[in-house]
Amino acid sequence: MRLSKNIDFANVLDVSQVSLELARELIRFARYSIEYYFDNEDSPPEPRDLLEKFPVAKKKAAVFITLEKLVGSRRELRGCIGFVIPYLPLWRAVSESAISSAFKDPRFEPLDRSELKNIAIELSILSISNRLSDPLKEVIIGRDGLYIVRGLNSGILLPQVPIDYCWDTETFLAETCIKAGLEPDCWIDEKTEIYGIPGRIFSETTPNGEVFERDLAREYREKCY
Question: From CA 68, how far away is CA 7, in angstroms rounded?
Fold first, then answer.
């Protein structure tokens, strides 16, 4: 199973096309999607104004939305779901991922309306790469997420995860194996498919606050060395 199989690359988003202004609008739309679901238990309609201003948001994209709840000075994970393959237009992938992260992440209870004011949203927009043959050499911490598949098992860890925990490449691979429900050294097995997935990460400084793009390579140098 190759991630690139049956993908119409002509209609897939190039992540370099995403401006900070577009990322701000997408995160606002993610928050609006959650608010809309509280009232309608459905996805919001197509955001015509956003698409007129940013036609590139119609292109298909792999997207994850991460919700973090502010508890004092700490941020606690409150949901994270998305699409590793670009099946949906960017705007819709953002909306569906936000709703799923808020209400359908099996690790958490559905989000309560009272919590939303304390939720910061992070948007991960992912590229697609081919299967890796030598992951220890090919994976770059600060650029790549990892997606591992073997049989019916699969797991993904986003590019920001090894930075948050100061993992080296081998630990990152092992933790992705564990996320997939496999043994930590599954990445050594030739039957295991390993994909490096570069991405760009945009995050709110505070709930409903300013949006910035994370410089993962710089964060890794400053935090982990």
Answer: 31
